[in-house]
Amino acid sequence: MANLTKDEILILLRPPFTNWSNITREAEKVVGYPTSFMNLRCLLSDEFANLALYLRKLVGSNHLVMQTAKNVLYGDSKNLQPWGLIILLLSKSVKAHVPTTQAKVIDEQQRALAELIELMRTGHLIHRGIVNVPFAKRSKSTESAIFGNKIAILLGDYLLVTANTMLAGLKNADVLYIVSSGLKDLSEGEFFGDRDEQNMPLPGKPRLTNDDIITFDTTSIAVDDVIGKPRKEWTARTVFNGVSLLGRACQSAMLLAKQHRETQNNAYYFGCHVGLAWQAATELQSLTSDSKDRFCLASAPVLFALEGNPDLYKIIDQAKNDVKDVDYEDLKFNILKTDAIDKTKMLYEDHAKKATSYIESIGHNESVEMIKKLINTF
């Protein structure tokens, strides 16, 4: 690829088009529930409506919370993965051997679980839209940013409080503990590794190592042990950044369905692997599309490129204060000249294969086949 132009490389690497919305609708027919509107009950509340009136004042601004709100409302599949749909499909893949009346209660609990997990993730994403405005730099020109921060805090808090109220409403101490551990990981992910002034993640300096053992036990992950090791660093960051919460939600769904401990654990690993496969696919799209948008500097293609060409870290050094200072077009061109894209594809295929293996160990039915179809469409 070294002798090809940037446009020629992009054409070769561009992924085939897939009609994601049609597949999502097929999956929703299986679960019998329109998960595209999973947050609708919350969005139609009086409290949220009042906050939305203030959010309208930010229309036309470049505040991060507006981009997040747009992704939530219009279902940007690249940024918002349908976790609720995955959880409900997994729930449908097993059947609790209980009386009919109790089975209906379990169905309602699993639906509530899917909804509250979506609310937790959405609330967290909105909180990430807060812009750091140092006190010394505040002026009339920063008033919009400060106002946007207030709205982001209120919106995010409202969604998280609603989600936690729903979690308590399940009246299941084990599920409460499991989901809370995933939420803890999600919060800790915001402090994992180096960050710029806006708390955007920065990659660690590459280190030569053959240590590639991966763990999903977040209590045993040490920052110093993974930073600079491409696969381990990417996995740790992604697990803390939401994959753990998805895995714990899948585990909780099996607990509510009164499945054995082994099935619960397999569901956790399934959730982690499907989340990692999804993230790898998303990052591939960002680097192989014609888009000139900024991409995450701690994404798998960037980390693999730094491993193959450590000199690229000089470009990353420009982002110590703000990731916007990086020449993304130049960085992208240099990444595409390495084997980073091929390694990221292998990363996706590895996690997709493992996710498929774990879901097949849980059941063989229409729901499982639909999950496999979703995995193969990432």
TrEMBL record:
Any single GO CC term annotated in Swiss-Prot or TrEMBL for this entry: mitochondrion
Origin: domain of life: Eukaryota
Alphabetically ordered keywords of this record: Transferase
UniProt key word Transferase: yes
SUPFAM superfamilies found in the cross-reference section: Terpenoid synthases
Keyword Transferase: yes
Pfam families listed in its UniProt record: polyprenyl_synt
Name listed for the protein in its UniProt record: Decaprenyl-diphosphate synthase subunit 2
PANTHER family: ALL TRANS-POLYPRENYL-DIPHOSPHATE SYNTHASE PDSS2, GERANYLGERANYL PYROPHOSPHATE SYNTHASE
